[in-house]
TrEMBL record:
It is found in: Cytoplasm, Cell cortex. Pfam families: IQ, Myosin_head, Myosin_TH1. Residues 12-698 form the Myosin motor domain. Residues 575-597 are annotated as: Actin-binding. The keyword Cytoplasm does not apply. This is Unconventional myosin-Ib. PROSITE patterns: IQ, MYOSIN_MOTOR, TH1. Motor protein that may participate in process critical to neuronal development and function such as cell migration, neurite outgrowth and vesicular transport. Belongs to the TRAFAC class myosin-kinesin ATPase superfamily. Myosin family. Coiled coil: none annotated. Residues 920-1106 form the TH1 domain. ATP binds at residues 105-112.
Amino acid sequence: MEVKTSLLDNMIGVGDMVLLEPLSEDSFLENLQKRFDHNEIYTYIGSVVISMNPYRSLPIFTPDKVEEYRNRNFYELSPHIYALADEAYRSLRDQDKDQCILITGESGAGKTEASKLVMSYVAAVCGKGQEVNKVKEQLLQSNPVLEAFGNAKTVRNDNSSRFGKYMDIEFDFKGDPLGGVISNYLLEKSRVVKQPRGERNFHVFYQLLSGASDDTLRKLKLDRDFSKYNYLSLDSAAVNGLDDAANFRTVRNAMQIVGFMEDEVQSVLELVAAVLKLGNIEFKPESRCNGTDESRIKDKNDLKEMCELLGIEQSVLERAFSYRTVEAKMEKVSTTLNVAQAYYARDALAKNLYSRLFSWLVTRINESIKAQTKTRHKVMGVLDIYGFEIFEDNSFEQFIINYCNEKLQQIFIELTLREEQEEYVREGIEWTNIEYFNNAIICDLIENNQNGILAMLDEECLRPGTVTDETFLDKLNTVCAEHQHFESRLSKNSKFLTDHSLPHNCFRIQHYAGKVLYRVEGFVDKNNDLLYRDLSQAMYKANHSLIKQLFPEGNPAKVNLKRPPTAGFQFRASVGTLMKNLQTKNPNYIRCIKPNDKKASHIFTDSLVRHQVRYLGLMENVRVRRAGYAFRQAYEPCLERYKMLCKRTWPHWRGPAREGVEVLMTDLQVPAEEFSYGRSKIFIRNPRTLFFLEERRRQCLEDLATLIQKIYRGWKCRTQFLLLKKSQVTVAAWYRRYAQQKKYKRIKSATTVVQSYTRGWQARKLLRELKYQKRCEEAVTTIAAFWHGTQARRELRRLKEEARRKHAVAVIWAYWQGLKVRREYRKFFRANAGKKIYDFTIQRIIQKYFLNLKSTMPSMSPIDKNWPTRPYLFLDGVHTDLRRIFHLWRCKKYRSQFTEEKKAVYEEKLEASEIFKDKKALYPSSVSQPFKGDYLEISKNPKYQKLNSAVDEKVLLADVVNKINRANGKGTARIFLLTKKSVVLADQKTGQVKASVPLPDLSSVSVSTQTDGFFALRLKEGSASAVKGDFLLSSEHLIEIITKLHRVGATTADMEQLNVDISDEFLVQFKQDKVCVKFIQGVPKNGNSVSCKRKNNRLLEVSVPTTP
C-alpha cells in the first residue's frame, strides 16, 4: 500500500503560515528563517506559495519529484511549487476552469526561475506525442529568446527580467498543450542607452559579441572588444557563472526550434548591431551665420556602417540627426538641433529601435506558438512581472511598476476573499465580513481619469507652453494636496516642519507596502517618449524589410499629425486589460522573496526579508485567511489521520466519514465553537485546536508504536523458539543417521577384510598348482625344441650340399653353351656383328627412354609446364615433338570437358587479355575473378521487377556503378544494364530508368592505366544520346564491363567495333563543355579508396593509391 505523508508530518517549523501560533511579524520571519536554514524554501499561506531564493541548486526538482507531486492533493505533501502547479493543471483539465499563476517579488527573488519550474512541470505531466512534444518544446524554448533580449545583469540579480511577461498556455479537452500567447509589459528601454554602475545592458549584446563566429561579426561590421561600444558598460561586462558564448548558441538553437527563419534571425542580429553602432555616433557643436547652434557628426564611419546594415541612405539619416521638422496643419517648420538635442534624438532612436524589435520578437513568437485549431481552449496564464520596487532614487519606471503592483494587490485581496466566501457558501458555513485595508483609494489616486496622477501627467505633457517636471509637481500639489495618501512639501500631509526627508522636487505616496519617495525629474520626458518624425521617416526609407515593419508611422502616405499616446496611458490600458483577463480565471499565487543582497546561499538577512514581507502584504494575507477558519480538511483524510484517537473509530470506521469525524470530535471533547461541519469538510477555527489534535495523535502513535513493538517482540521470540525446536529435531535425525551409517561402514569393512584373507589363501593355493603345471609343460617344450633343432640343422646341411652341386652343373653348362656360340659366330663377327650390337643398344636405350617417360609423365593440367629432361642428345627432336603432341592432346581432353557457357567465359577472358594485358594495372587482379555478368540477379529479385520489364532484350550484364558528378566529383549510385542493343542507367532505389544509350551511338571507351575503376563512355557527336554529354562512371568490375561492350560491338553487324583508349588523361564531353579527367598517384584523404575531386571548371583530378 502506498504510504502518503501530510503537510503536518515531519514538519520543520510551520508549513502553512495560517497555522502559525502566535501570529506576529517576528514569528513569521522566524518561521521562514528556520525552514530556510533546513533547505525548506517553500511555505504556504493557505493556497499561496512563498518561495525563498536558495541561490544554489537543490535536489528537489528532479523527475522523481515531479512524479511524487503528480495527481496529489495540495496539502498532501510538504510545500512545493510543484503542488501549486499540479493543483492548477488538474483544476484546468478536470474541472474546466481557466487558471492563472501570478508570480511576484522584487528583482533577484527568483520569479523567472519559478515561472520556468511551473512550465516545465506542466510540460512533464501533460500528454505525450510528436505534435504535443513539438508544442511543449516551442513553449519552453521561447524563454531563452525572451531572456536574451529582455533580461540583464543588475546589482541585485545576474539574470533580472527587465520586462513584465504574461503567457497564456492553451490546452485541449484532454489537457494537452495546443499553443500559447505571450504579452509583454514595459520593457526597460532606458537601459539600452545607460546602465547604472555595476549593471549591464541586455544580455543579447554581450552574447552576440562573445558567441558569434568571426564571419558573422565581419558581416555585421562588429568587433569582439566590448570597450569599443559606448552603450556597453565595462565595469561588469563579464559575469561569473554566465557563459555568453554558450548562451548565444542556445538562443540561436531556441530561435530555430520556435520557428524563426534564417533570414529573420539575420535581420534581428543586424538590428542589434545597428543599436551598438548607433551608440558610437557622437556630435560636435557648430555655429551658423545667423547665430543659431547646430550639431554635426564627428566621425561618420559608424554612421556609414549602420546605414549599410539597415539599407538607409547616409545623407537622409545624417539630416534627421541635425534637423527637426514640425508640422502644424498645412505648415512645415524645420529647425536645427543642438548637440544636446542630437544626443537626445540618437538615444530616443536607439531605445525605440530596440523596444520595437523586442515587441516584434514577441509577436513573431506568438505566431509560431499560437494554437492552430479554432475550437474553445482551456487556458492557463503565467504572470512573471516586477515586484514592488523601493529604491533610493525612484523615478517614472518605479512609479508605474508600483502602480501595477497596487492593481495586483487589489485583485489578490478581492479574489482571495471571493474564494473564501465561495468556499464557505459551498460548504454551508455562515460567512462573516472580514475587515481589511482596501487599496482601491491608492489605485484611484494614480489612475483616476479626472484627477489621477497619470491623467495629470498626460494633461501636462499635452498642454501648450513650457512644460517641465516642476510644473507637473505644482499641478500635483494643487490637485492632490488634500489626499490622505499623497505627500509633498506643499501638501497638508507633509508635516514638513518636522519631516526633512522630503526634498522640494519629490512627492511621496503611501502604498499598501509602505511609503515611497518619487523624484519628478524625467517624469515628463519618459511619459512623452517622443521620437522625432524625421527619424521615423528616415527609418521607413530603409531597404531593410524588418525596419519598415517597426516604423509604420514613417510612411509619408500615412502621415498622422495626431500626437501618439503617452507611455503612462499605454501602460494603464495594458494593465487594465491584464486585470480583466485575470478576473476571468482562477488565481494561484507565488510570492518570491530574496533572502539576501549578496546572492549567496545560507544567508538570511532579517531586515531585507522583513521589508519584502511588508510590501508583498503577506501578513495581511495571513490575517485574511485566518479571519474565518484557520484550517479546513475533507472528512475522509481527517478521519484517516485522527481515527486512532477514539476507540469507536479505531481501527476501522464502517459508517460515513462525516459521522466518524463527529464521533471523534465528541469523544475528544473539543469545544463546539472551535469547529464547524461543512458539507464535505470540517472547519477548525483556531490553530491551537489543530495542534491539540496533532499532539494527541503523536502520543497515540507512540503508544501504538510501543504496542506494535511488544507484539513484534513476542512474535519474534516465538518464531525463534519454534525455529530452534525444528533445528534440534533436524540435527538429532541427522546425527542418528550418521551414527548408523558409521556402524554399517565398520561392519562392512570387517567383512571385507575376512573375505579378502579367504580369497587370498584360495588364490595362493591355485597359483602354486598352476606354477607346478606350467613348469612341467615348459620342460616338455624345451626338450621338444632341442630335438627339433637338431633335426632341422641336419636337414639344412643336406640341402646346402645338394644346392652346391646343382650350381656347379649350371655353371659348367653355361660355359659350354658360350663356347659353342662363340665358335659358331666367330666367322660372322667381322661382317655384321657391330651393326647388330648397335641396333640392340639403340633399341634398349629407346625402350628405357619410353619406360622412364611413362613413369615421369606430367599432370593433365594445360598450364602445367613441367616435362622430363632429355636423357640423350640424339633424342632432342623426338623429345620436343612428344612434348608438343602431349600438350595438344591434353588440351583437347581439357576442352572436351567445357560447356558452351564456360567456353564463352574463357573466350571473354582471352579477349580481356588482348585488350588490357600489360596496359591496365587493374587487369592482373581480375584474371582470377570469374565474369558473372548478372550481379544483381535482376530477373529473380522482386525489387527490380519493374526495371526488368522495361528492358526488352536479354540482359548481358547488370551491376551497380557510380555516376560521377562533374560539379563536385562525387558519385551517385546507378544500376548499369548491358543488352545486345543498348546501355541502360537506372536509379538504384526506385529502379526508374535515367538514361538509355543505343550501342551504335557509342564511339569509344576511355580508361586509365591505373588500378582505378573509372571509365568514360564516349558518345558520337550529333547522335540523339549525345545531348547530355558523355558518361563518366566508376565500377568494381571495369574489366568485365568493357570486355562485354567490346564483344557486343564486334558481333553486331550494324555497329563498328568499339575502340578502347587507355590513357591517364582524356577528355569527356559534358553538355557544351569538355572536361579533362586526369589520373594521378597519391594518398587519397579517405584512405585506400580512389577519390575524385573537381579542381576547376575544366579539370577533374582522380587520386589513385600508389601500387605497392
